[in-house]
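Wed. Picked up where I left off yesterday with Endonuclease. The coffee machine is broken again, so keeping this brief.
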Amino acid sequence: MYKRIRNQLDGILKARENSRGSCSGSEHVPDFEPHRHIRLLTFNIQVGINTSSYRHYFTRSWQHVLPHRRRFENLDRIATLLSQYDVVALQECDGGSLRSGYINQVQYLAEAAGIPYWYQQLNRNLGQIAQHSNGLLSRFRPLDVTEHKLPGLIPGRGAIVARYGLKEDPLVLVLMHLSLSKTAQQRQLGFIQELISEYRHVVLMGDMNAHAEQLLTRTPLRNSDLVPLPDTAHSFPSWRPEKALDHILVSPSLEIRQSGVVSYPVSDHLPIALDIALPRGYLETF
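Structure written out below (tokens, as returned):
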């Protein structure tokens, strides 16, 4: 409790300074372990709001602006799930504003889940009202992490690129939250396709606001050969999943061991999980 209050006070004092995303640093993060399979998760957490009905979009809409005492309880439940994974892509996080109690939710979840590396990308800065962000949590030290603003008529969408393993032939993870507009998605996926075009081992993770069939046949990803989860992997809405909007798409070089939707309704989206193993030839280079 003391630590939480202290963090809140620190956040209030520094709120005007937090105009950009932030990172944990990698000093105490273990090296990448290419010999093991990697447990991946993508989760749109809706800034920690527990939504279990369409009516909650109205009755709990005030929580997108103001703090709520139960938000930390929901974040703690989310952290319990995240603790079971190696690399996590988070969407709709708050980077430390009034509604989150001036707590960086990416950092909070990383610390609560015991995951040593975290990176917060601030995509839409509304000052003390809201700090719309994406997040990366990782048990392994990445080679590097870069962030990109995605194109669109309305700014505020972004992607995080994390590279692991060999510099000459890395495993590349791209974490993203795409726009609702199909026109904007075309531009954003064209940008993403350019980012990944030169790599062999690629994973795209995030809330893509479209079904896999559309993403892989009607957008610039159509020539990428990425492998999706089954069309039945519905993640939205969490209380009655009917749409497959959240995805983990992987290169054919990566062996999929387990995959599916995680039944963990603490947001309006359900999380998507996938375990991968790097190709044998890649391991022999280490």
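Quick read: The chain has seven helices and twelve strands.
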